[in-house]
């Protein structure tokens, strides 16, 4: 196999987190008497971290001080409810197991807050990732390659031997900025047409197709 490590995005790639994200967003909005958002609106708001999700969800012109309060309320709620409706996509666990059985490292790099990444990976994928990291203070989020580069250093793997698996335009950009291959999935929060319009050359439609791409 060409690759020595496979780095996954989390939301929309290995876990369908959309409903829990929407529920916590709308809870936070309702606390401050702001209009709630539809699930499709939330789908297009995610991908750049929770702070950006809040900025997009609140009404235009909302003061910074209020955005901070909405963000804090979201965080408090989501910590308790991040796994209420979240589920792995069908076939994802088997894909990760196949990769590990081939002697390849597995990791997660996400723009989700790090507490969410650690909780969800532990709950849904115990023992299946060698490294997992989310958004942390002082570290630039994707599409900057900082966290991906950190993973490569941890395992002493060259970027030519690594592939990033994701579902959004942010992931396309992240892989490009890191100088590594990318495998885009079509079952997540962006459709194939959108992904190709934003630089994706190839989109897989099932974990089985992803395995064929990785195991080349």
TrEMBL record:
The lineage of its organism: Bacteria, Bacillati, Bacillota, Clostridia, Lachnospirales. The keyword Heme does not apply. GO terms for molecular function: phosphoglycolate phosphatase activity. GO terms for cellular component: cytosol. The keyword Hydrolase applies. This is HAD-IA family hydrolase. The gene is gph. Coiled coil: none annotated. Pfam families: HAD_2. Its EC number is 3.1.3.18. GO terms for biological process: DNA repair. It comes from the Bacteria. Keywords: Hydrolase. It is an enzyme of class 3 (hydrolase). InterPro entries: HAD-like_hydrolase_sf, HAD-like_sf, HAD-SF_hydro_IA, HAD_2, HAD_sf, PGP-like_dom2.
